[in-house]
Design brief:
Blueprint: H1 3-6, H2 23-58
Length: 60
C-alpha cells in the first residue's frame, strides 16, 4: 500500500467564473495554470525516476 493512499483526498477547487474575467486577466490566469502544470509534470517525472531507481535497486 502506498502511504499516499492513506492521506485524505482533497476536494477539487471550484473552477473560476471565466465570464467575469477580462482578456488580460484570462491571459494571466492561463500563464499561472501553465506554470503550475509544468511544476506538476516535473514532480511526476521526479517520482517516476525515484520509483524506477528503487525498483532496479531491489531487483534480483
Amino acid at each position: 500500500m502506498d502511504p499516499e493512499d492513506l492521506e485524505p483526498r482533497k476536494k477539487a477547487a471550484k473552477p473560476k467564473d471565466l465570464d467575469l474575467m477580462g482578456v488580460e486577466d484570462l491571459e494571466s490566469y492561463l500563464e499561472e495554470l501553465e506554470t503550475e502544470a509544468a511544476r506538476v509534470r516535473a514532480k511526476i517525472e521526479s517520482k517516476k525516476s525515484y520509483l524506477t531507481g528503487a525498483q532496479s535497486f531491489f531487483k534480483t
